[in-house]
Amino acid sequence: MRLQLYLLATGGLALSAFAVLPPGASGQDAVSSMEAPSVVPEPASESAPVVSGVDATAAARDLRVASALEALSSQVERTSDPDALRDAFQAYYAFRAARPERVRKPYLYFVDYGLDGRTPRGYVFDMESLSVMDGPFTVAHGRGSGPRDGVPTRFSNQSGSATSSLGLFVAAERYDFTGTAGDRHYASPGMRLDGVSGEFNSAARARGVVTHGAPYVTAWGSGRSEGCPAMEPARARRLIPLLSDGSLVFLFSPRDTIWLHGDPWVNGR
Q1: Residue 213 — φ and ψ, nearest 5°?
Q2: Which range marks the domain in which residue 122 is found?
Q3: What's the whole-number average pLDDT of the chain?
Q4: 247, 105 in Cβ contact below 8 A?
Q5: Taking residues 219-228, what's their average pLDDT?
Q6: What separation in angstroms does the CA of 157 have from each of 161, 162, 198?
Q7: Where residue 87 sits, what CATH number does that domain have?
């Protein structure tokens, strides 16, 4: 007797039997003599990967980071480090996945403090359409972080330090900011910041580190603040209403390696 196995389109197996009968044998004899073959499933390949929920989440995040880099890198004129944007997008998507209720708007305000004060170093990205809403534009750094037109080199989370802090922040409520530049008092829309990068910026609200417009920030130089990522007054009036209450802010510098290797969102934790 011959047995022929046919592979079905669905991936299963069908069995058909054709018996070669000896002289005098009946069809019933052939049927009674047939034995149904046993099908033993093949063991799973030892090399087949097992994908956990955590791995799948990380893979999805990496895909989003790659898409954002592909769409936005060519629109950013200059960065201080090849990984500046990657770190910003990694932090954005990691936090959004972990705390989606706090990310109510699709905007990311990014500042590259690895660039000097005269170089436009601020951008606002729309992370939903993967487009640049604004930038590059000048942004102030803290007077405790470095010289007026130079590259900031000192960063702190300490009250009274007048330094910039690095890492990821949630853009919180809008309010009416007032400040002093020299002997001149001025007013601007303000936006409070809640630091979410642990020890690196958790004291932002208590320190009064906010986003606001300031007359010392111009298109030709950023000036220095008390640690706030301040922008030009007209730009603040336009952007702060969009950014407040649920956008994210990411302040970057490649010069602080302790922060770079310890920030929980940059490192995907």
Answers
A1: -90, 150
A2: 54-262
A3: 86
A4: yes
A5: 95
A6: 8, 9, 10
A7: 2.40.440.10
